[in-house]
Every structure is written in C-alpha cells, then in structure tokens.
Amino acid sequence: MSKVNNLSAIFGCNVFNDSVMRSKLPKNVYISLKQTIKEGAELDSAIAEVVASAMKDWAIELGATHYCHWFIPLTGSPAEKHNAFLTLISPDEVIMEFSGKNLIKGEADASSFPSGGLRATFEARGYTAWDCTSPAFVKDGTLCIPTVYTSYNGEALDKKAPLLRSMECVSNQSVRLLRLLGDKHVNRVMPSIGAEQEYFLVDEKYHSQRLDLKFAGKTLFGAMPPKGQELDDHYYGNLKQRVSEFMADLDVELWKLGITSKTKHNEVAPAQHELAPIFEIASVACDRNHLTMEVMKKVAKKHGMRCMLNEKPFEGVNGSGKHNNWSLSTDAGENLFNPSSDLKNNKRFLLFCAAVIRGVDLHADLLRFSVASAGNDCRLGGHEAPPTVISIFLGDDLTNTFEQICTGVKNNDVHQAYLDMGIKTVPNLKLDSTDRNRTSPFAFTGNKFEFRMLGAPTSVASCNIMLNTIVAESLDYISTRLEKAADIQQEIDNVIKDIYENHKRVIFNGDGYSEEWRKEAKRRKLPEFNDTVDVAPCLTKKENIEFLANYGIFTPVELNSRYEITLRVYNKTKNIEAKTMIDMTEKQFLPAGFEYANCLSKGVKNAKEAGIESVYALEKKKAEQFGAILNDIQCALDELKASLQEAYDVKYGQTLKRATVYRDKVDSSMKKLRKAVDTMETVIPRKLYPVPTYVELLFGVD
Ligand code: ADP
Ligand code: MG
Hints:
CATH class of the largest domain: Alpha Beta
Bound molecules: adenosine-5'-diphosphate, magnesium ion
Number of helices: 23
Largest sheet: 9 strands, mixed
Low-confidence stretches: none
CATH superfamily of the largest domain: Glutamine synthetase/guanido kinase, catalytic domain
Distance between the termini: 16 Å
Helix content: 40-55%
CATH topology of the largest domain: Creatine Kinase, Chain A, domain 2
Strand content: 5-15%
Radius of gyration: 28 Å
CATH architecture of the largest domain: 2-Layer Sandwich
Mean pLDDT: 92
Number of strands: 19
Number of domains: 3
C-alpha cells in the first residue's frame, strides 16, 4: 500500500498544470495560454511550438517516451493512440521530438469508432484537436493531451466538443443576463461539476470464472443469498482491510493525476463503495471522471479485485449511479446558485433557479435521453435510483420563496435556522437551507443542483451538454423579456412569477419512490420515459433538432448520429447479454443440471431397489420437481433463441424497430431464462453449481 506523508507534495505531480506552466513557459506564452484557458480567448497557434517543447521536456523528466491525443469517442470510453517522441535523424540515430503541430492536431483513422452514419468508411479520416482548457498529464509513460475529435468535415465525433460548445453557450447567455442585472465586470460564467462515483469491488478469482461478468460486466444469473443489504450495515460501515488498502492506493494514483479524490465510503449494497472529488470546471471534471473510472479499474486489479461500474451488476441489491452536482460560477468565482440574504442578489439567484426550473420542465425528454442506456434501464425507477419521470426537488424554503412571490402573501413557514442537538457539549448546528431528499432525480442541494439519474459508467458529458443548453435557452428567454421591458425591476418579478406559475408542475418535494407520486406525475402530465427505446426518438423530433442546432450544440446530422449510436449500442448490449446467457446455459448450467438430475435418478433407483417406500417416494418427487425445473430452463432457452432470431430478422437499418424487439421480446425471454436458472441454483448442491455465486461475489472480499 502506498504510504503518503505529504499529500501536497505528490498532488498533481503528473499534470502539466498551472504551476508547471508558470515555471516552464516564457512569461508571454504563459499569459497567452492562460487567457485561452480562463477567458476562452482564441488559441494563438504561434505559441504551440513553445508549449509543445516545454511539455515534452517535462514529460520526459517523468519518464515519458510517448505522447497521445486523448479523447472520448462516442463509445463513451477514452481512446488513446500512442506515438513515440521519436524522429530518425540518421539510419541509426534518433532524437526525441514533439512539435507544435503534433500538439495542436492529430489524425486518427476514424473508421472503427462509432459514428452513427456520420462518416462513410471511405472518409475514414478523423482529426483530434488540442483542448488546452483541460491539462495534459503523464500516464504510464505517455504524455496524454486532452483533445476533441471531429470528422473530416468537422462534425463532432466525440463527447467533448459538444460539451465545450454547451459551456460556451450557457456562459454567453449567463453573461447577457448578468449584464442586464447590472454586473459590469463579468465576462464568463462556467458550469462546475462534482461527480460522485459509485462502484463495486469483486474478488478477481470469482470474477474471472463468470462469463457474464467478463462479457456483460454484470451478472445475468444469480439467486440472492440469505442476506443482502436489508440491515443497512454496509452504508458508511468501516472499511475492510483490503478495500481500505485499495482506496488508499487509488487516492494516491488519483492525486498524482491532479484529481481531488476527497470523500470515500462504503455504499448501501454489500461490496459497493463511493468516491467523490471536489467539483471543478465541467470539461475538466468530465475528463477526470473518465480517468477516475480507468484508474479505479487498474488499481483494483493490482489488489486482486475487479472494479465493476455497471449500472446494475446484481439483482436484489442497489445498482451504481453517478451524481452530477452542477452549478454556475462567474469568472470572479461567485456561485450563481448561492442564496443570498441581500435582495438584489437574491433576485439574481431566483432568476437563475427559475431558468433551471423552466429548462428542466420544457426539456425533460432531452435530459432523460442523456442518461439512457440498456444498463441504466435496469436501475431507474427501481426504488434504489430516481424514478423515470423527471421532477425537481427545491426544498421547502425555496419553494416557499417562489410561492410568496407569486401569491404576494408573506409566509413565515420557514425552517428554524439552527438545529438544537439537545446535548450541552455539542454545539447547535446551522441547518442547511434544504433537507436531503434522496429520491428526487434532480435536487437543489443548498447551492447547486444534483442530477442523480446517471448510471455509474456514463460519461458526465452527455447530461451536462443538455443541462447547460436547456438552462442557456431559459436564460435567453429571460434576457429577451428583460431587454424589452420598460421597467426592468418589475419585469424581473413578473418573469420569476410567470416561470414559477407555468412550470411548477415539475417541482416535487415528496417521496419520489412512492406510488402516489407516479399517479400525481401522470395527473400533472409530466412525461415519463420508461427506457432507452421510449426516449431515444425524442432526438428525431423537429423542435429538438432545431433547438440544439439553434444554440450551436449539435447539427442535425450530429444529433442523428447520437440517436443511431444510442440505439445501436442498446441493441448490441442486449445481443451480447442474450448470447452470453445462451452460452452459459448450454455449456454450464444445463450440463450441471443434468448431472444433478442423474444423481437424483440414481437415488430413485437405489431407493426402489432397497425397497424403502418412503425414501423412494421422496426421491421420486424430488427428481420430478427437478426435472420440471430443467424443463423450464430448456423452454426458456429455446424461447430466447427464437426471440433473438426475431431481432436479427429486422431489416438492416431499422434500428428503432430492432431495439423494440430486443426490449419487448429478447429482454422478457432473458428474464424467464434467468428465473429458471436461478430457481435451479437454489436447489442444486453448491459443488455442482458451475460458477461462483452471489455469496462469493458480494461477500468474497475480506
Ligand atoms: P453528498 O453525498 O451529500 O451528495 P458528497 O460530499 O459526497 O455529498 O458530494 C458532493 C459533491 O458535490 C462533491 O463532489 C462536491 O465537490 C460537489 N459540489 C459541492 N459544491 C458544488 C458546487 N457549487 N458545484 C458543483 N459541485 C459541487
Ligand atoms: Mg455522496
């Protein structure tokens, strides 16, 4: 286990961060680059040469021999192609070289990345372009340069480019509104993200024996052991030695990469844990969340474990999500969602909150789409994660404030400011202005909004692209009204009132898991999208295509590619799961079942020969019952094969139709097969069950 005496000495030691830049770059180059990073000024390509050379020298000192343009293609996982800093200057002599050109632009054969029809294979060329707002870093002997990734025609083939566009968009609209409110100095407003990451740790020796974990990243079979999470004894429980050692190593590796791993604890399910960093600028937070997931997996392997990020790796216990804490801050460092006691700033706060409320209500479909995946479909709405209807938890205080503005009636029903603990030695605590509500998909948590619908493996880019844009559009709406108003102060009140009146249906402060809420949400006509197949078509709606194109986030072609890819990935995921189930059933479960059936038959035969009637009757009954289970497995297996064939028979190109077959037919056949095999698991002797069980997977790390 890594021992760290001085955290600050290692923090960011592998990052080409501000202090490295200040010490390694000539002053004018440093200032110019900082302007691009902080203020969004255009990158001066003349400085690239100097930066490249400084970066290379710095990276070589850290043992790097290669560089790579590091990007997030539409697979959702980082891609890297390593190039040595190597130039041949004579047949047997090399120098280490890295030019400004190498830094700014790279070329990557794009033909094997998903493009959703954006790029024909004959136009295989794709380009990576340096995103200097996210710092370069050294990882495993390679200098990694965060980049955006585009097609030959400039269409975004990645998650980062649209994220940067949406950040620019929400910044412009925020600045516009702030200027109208009298702020003369603000030039830029940036979204910040703090991504809380959940994960499971499973012992490698058990993990490696299960084909479903290997191929699908989740268990496709498995009966619950006698104990699960019902005693709530894992959440915040003390860390097992092995887990604690893993977490300590993970912290060190993350800190070296400048990732502010801050909070760690056991989560609700056995074998489940969480890590949270300190929030930072959205694009950097996005890159770093990807890196965090990668490092988690690597460090877990070193400790003989597997880190699982699937949204629902085990039935019967909680799945893993990611909480996206989001706020907007000015270049002066002011958080626009900080409630204030002074009226002027409070109006600003209320306007920005109103923009969020309006945006979420009007564009719930896009937000819902941004977290849609086959894996997350198994988690959302399951009383462990938010429901599939989007609502906002505002808390009583903020809801009251809006109500008072609308009704003009003063309401004293606000929380006491201090929580009296009733214990003399413990000081009274200042109450947060909002209580916690764990059941809401989108909660105001004091000075930020927390979007809780993301699945654990999902890139935070997707939801923040939508979040930034829907809020930008509402800010645009607000500013347009204020610009036209004769009395701006009066209009501010009118806007707050109108937005609240028109969009308060999306606000819900109660229990999001309750049946009443389902009914109430229907009554309020809030859109409900149960799954990926339900929500994906929202990307083909004219108003959404125009909306995202108008704000410069996705061209219609880019948007269509996201639609296609989402559904294709959905189909492929289901296909892999179905094929894995068939394989495991045919090669592992049925043979084990027949072996046991054989034992049972022998038992029947022996009892009969021995002439012991009562034992014979029992053995016979058991054998018959087991025969019925085997029969169920065989029938479910045949049905799954037929369903799968139905999906294959859908004409090529009809992605939505095929996805519908996967959801309606293949998925329900998979459920039947699982149920039959899991029933067998509960009766077959442990030594005959061919793979590690939930007991080993969930309780095997000690
Ligand atoms: P909880 O589990 O109560 O939600 P955590 O401490 O686990 O709280 O995580 C909260 C996350 O929110 C952290 O990543 C934190 O850095 C982040 N956060 C705090 N303030 C802001 C903010 N203003 N904007 C965005 N994220 C924030
Ligand atoms: Mg937390």
